[in-house]
Amino acid sequence: MYTLALALLATTPAQPPAKHEDQNPLYKGLLDPGFDAGGKEKVKFPAPTMPDGLDGAKQTAIIKALIGTDYTYEQFMHKSDVSPQLLKIRDIDGGDPKAPVRGVDVWFVAYGDFKQLEDDKFLDRLTGANKGSSGKGTPLDAKELAKRGIVLKAEDEKRESYGTFEFDFLEKVKLSGTGHAMWSRTGESIVAAAEIDPRFLNDKDSPNRWRSIITPGAQKKLGPPQPWTGAGMYLKITKLQQPAGAVFIEQHLIFAEPEGWFDGANLLRSKLPIAMQQNVRTMRREFAKGK
């Protein structure tokens, strides 16, 4: 699912206003009123763990409170690809009983030059580092969007995008559909928000669908396509005041998990931590390597 989150991200920054909510309506909408996961009520995303505007002491206090007794502060902050990350998988009330809502939250620290986040090519490489070879995506241009009654504002064209996607999730499910993503930046942080756009649920050309992978491998066989209410996420990278070169990265993901995905098996908690660990290490290496 981390792969899905990265695949949805737009990669064109611009000079922003002071707050992310002022320039990123997609992100603002995920926080309130929330993400439509197919239930009666929308599901609100958690506010960022590390808000802007804090001094070094307050940032350190937030990290210590977050990790609790799971790790020492020194372990969590250690400058290494294999330093720990914190991962939480949670069940969320309010969704369709036949497609329960899950939340995945990840926090970790990376090291590199924060200024390189101003470069759109670097951002593209950083967020695309974990897309893998099993997935593919295609941007939707203005003409394709106009067919669906979607028009990008001129001031947002470099920070907002739509695109189709298709990839395998945990070798059990093939996901496909259309994503909507938007970037924003302040002097202290970057936020990338994305969602599987609900307006494409029954789109003629790029509907939001899932299919069981009945036989994995080269001779892959798939089950019939099923509607998918989708997923939403945001990624926030915040510059830390201390130690030098450190950034705090957090990702919050909410998605619907139809019962047919894993046939009752709890694969998220058994397989996702391993996949996430590799993704975090890759992102750390890319950030340290720089432009």
CATH topology value = Alpha-D-Glucose-1,6-Bisphosphate, Chain A, domain 4
Domain tally = 1
Query: Into which percent range does the helicity of residues fall?
Result: 10-25%
Please tally the helical runs, counting DSSP H or I stretches of 4 or more residues: 8
Q: What does the overall shape look like?
A: globular
Oligomerization state: single chain
CATH architecture: 2-Layer Sandwich
- Low-pLDDT segments: 1-17
Tell me the β content: 25-35%
CATH class: Alpha Beta
Describe this structure in words.
The radius of gyration is 19 Å and the shape is globular. The longest helix is centred in the last third of the chain and has 23 residues. By secondary structure, the chain is an alpha+beta fold. The chain has a single domain, classed as Alpha-D-Glucose-1,6-Bisphosphate, Chain A, domain 4. The chain is 24% helix and 31% strand. The N terminus is likely disordered. A hairpin with a 3-residue loop joins strand 5 and strand 6. The two termini are 26 Å apart.
